[in-house]
Amino acid sequence: MSSGYKGLYEEQGYVIIPDLIPEPVRTELEEACARVIARTRSGEWTHRRTVGRQFPPFNQAHPDSWGVQHVMHPDLHEPSYASWYTSRPLLDAATELLGCQEDELQMELFNLLINPESHAFSLRWHRDDVRETATVDEEREALAVWHHGVQWNSALYKDSCLYVVPSSHKLPRSPEQRAHSSTMDAPTSPLDMPGAIQVVLQPGETVFYNSNILHCATYDPHQRRATLHACMGSTRGGASRARNILQHGLLWMREDRFRDGLDGRGRAMLANLIKMQESVNGDLEYSLQN
Ligand SMILES: O=C(O)CCC(=O)C(=O)O
Ligand SMILES: [Fe+2]
């Protein structure tokens, strides 16, 4: 991929890339999403994000869902997710943005973000791996570390849920920004946050964003959403992504039946994840709290 995407990604903390989902694949993914969304809403698939809770562990108390977790899980029998996750256009984008070689790519999370059925819901302003109580110095220190991972949202339908503060992945919050992001409450108007913009994705577009950019999201039950939400790392990060990734409980990825369903590229990426998992002791905390 020859582009200015990496420069923009580093400068703004996010970049929108079109066309990472070829047309026939998009239809397959739309159909797979319709099936897993139905299974999640019916309660059959219990790995889900529940309305009222922003971060894992997601409880099972609330009936409405805003996300489907672990779409590559073999129990879902939907091979199109793993085959897209390891597809050429996506791997080219990830290696460019990560600045690594393909054999250094580490398989990580793949979830689906959906509209709740009957409740409007919002996420508060947050960085995925820095707590809202961090001091300016703690924030500066956390943001100075290169995290060796990329995260993205790929919209199957038009998606205007996400808000970000461009370039905030490099800067501690200003006092005003801190005032808008220090409580557990979601904003009533996200654009009140100084510097905030709304990220609007047309169907088929992908936004890659630094997971420590200041961001929030709003979910409208009347606006159809099926947005592929995934991340990938590079082995250059060693175990630095362990907490962020392994807190989601990925035992199923160690099963032979999962590995057997992957192609050669996927198996190599999975082997890198398992190596990282084995290099740390299982006792991990959660990055953020609800
Ligand atoms: O819904 C989105 O686009 C953002 C989700 C998010 O920020 C998160 O899962 O931490
Ligand atoms: Fe987030």
UniProtKB/TrEMBL annotation:
InterPro entries: Phytyl_CoA_dOase-like (IPR008775). Pfam families: PhyH. Residues 170-189 are annotated as: Disordered. PANTHER family: PHYTANOYL-COA DIOXYGENASE FAMILY PROTEIN (AFU_ORTHOLOGUE AFUA_2G15850). This is Phytanoyl-CoA dioxygenase. It comes from Ceriporiopsis subvermispora (strain B) (White-rot fungus). The lineage of its organism: Eukaryota, Fungi, Dikarya, Basidiomycota, Agaricomycotina.
